[in-house]
């Protein structure tokens, strides 16, 4: 593999390495942009899931595991493709830097596709390598080990290519057919919709055996769900698909052909026709003309921070992509709650699952908004906010708190109120909304600890996140705590004194955290540049061992 890579043209190899760094957002990497370490962490998470699914394939039904793998791979590939939404198409940097150089457009296009394919290939291989062997061994007695193994990977690669080409087709033709300004506005909505679609497809659709796919009640579901198409294709290659379901496998083949043709056409046309628009139009969508009415949120400083945050989220492509990930998880949890409400006769009593779902929705919304606040929107323009810093730091902290509550907490409370309409008694549903509001305020105060900057204005040093640590910490620590909190709240809702006691506890926690943040902010300074810690290595000439000390720059 190394020898083959060295034989490729030098221009292709250099561009491939650079584009690979840009497929994965550099904000998530270390300060030295160690993409290898990041991809290793990402692959480690997927390998853990693959081990669990491999054990399931060997112990229980391999057919169910095969379908679960196809659905999970569809989720992973879909999320990676949407996260790297603009990685395959040329941007302003590509045109300005590479256009004057003697680099052919086909070399740029090939390097971009190879970089995206490398990330997708790593994810698919890490998730499916071990389970595919386990499935082939389990199905070997019926179909043959090699046949089952080959059928699984052919269907899997066909589905991956279909998803990748479908996203390219949608994005490419939207860029071709719409004016640049309209496309910049629509692009964020398409990304959020794609996120929600992939998550809902995974969490809401049940696993169906081959016999159940032919039932009339399941016809509409399997007919419009790609994961069932390619699962049917896999079963057909094993020779076990009934004749009544051959149309399902054929639909997957037709969809793959249409997606590949559409993706290739959109890529070629975009590289020919949209380069000039990419250079001339700004990344930030300009505001529309006409009469403007500015909503007031208290003091002028608080109003300015909130309006700046709203416009940054709605007009910046980078921040829309980052926040769309968290919003899509919130939407998936909400749709799952709606699905449960439809299945149960209304009205019905509050359940622990509903309480847990709303707590998770609040957590993802507030924490996601706080993480997006750290990303700067324009480092060249933050001097405007520096020279206008005439207020003390606690006022900036209060403005950020209000932005978190208005944009993160209150929308989730409103959504939870809509979802709670079918639950009875009414006073318990209202009490839960009050408790959920207080939980959101607690999360907002926790997010403000050490956050002494204006949202979207401070430079950001990547390298503070560890994918494996955050992922497993969330599963091992936070999920059990949220389940315990939902169980405790469900018991408390049965008694008015316990409801008042729990509400009092949350109010006291909010007051204590707010007092702590206010005291810390009084002695803090708003900063607009995150600087790395200067590391000083001593030579140890005094006789002691060499030591490494750090000093704040």
Architecture blueprint of SSEs:
Blueprint lengths: L1 H6 L2 H14 L11 H25 L2 H22 L8 H7 L6 H39 L1 H33 L2 H25 L5 H4 L5 H5 L2 H12 L8 H28 L1 H6 L19 H16 L1 H27 L8 H22 L9 H5 L5 H27 L6 H22 L19 H26 L3 H27 L11 E4 L10 E4 L2
Antiparallel strand pairs: 1-2
Helix pairs in contact: 2-6, 3-4, 3-6, 4-6, 4-7, 4-8, 4-11, 6-7, 7-11, 7-12, 8-15, 11-12, 14-15, 14-18, 15-16, 16-18, 16-19, 16-20, 18-19, 19-21
In short:
This protein has 553 residues and is mostly helical. The protein has 21 helices and 2 strands.
Count of strand segments: 2
Question: Which sequence of SSEs, written as H and E, runs from N to C?
Answer: HHHHHHHHHHHHHHHHHHHHHEE
Q: Tally the helices.
A: 21
pLDDT < 50 stretches? 26-33, 546-553
Strand order of the largest sheet: 1-2
Approximately how much helix is present in the residues?
Answer: over 70%
Identify the overall geometry.
Answer: globular
Structural class: mainly alpha
Spatial separation of the terminal alpha carbons: 44 Å
Oligomeric grouping of the chains? single chain
Mean pLDDT: 79
The radius of gyration over CA amounts to 26 Å
Main beta sheet: strand number and arrangement? Answer: 2 strands, antiparallel
Strand content: under 5%
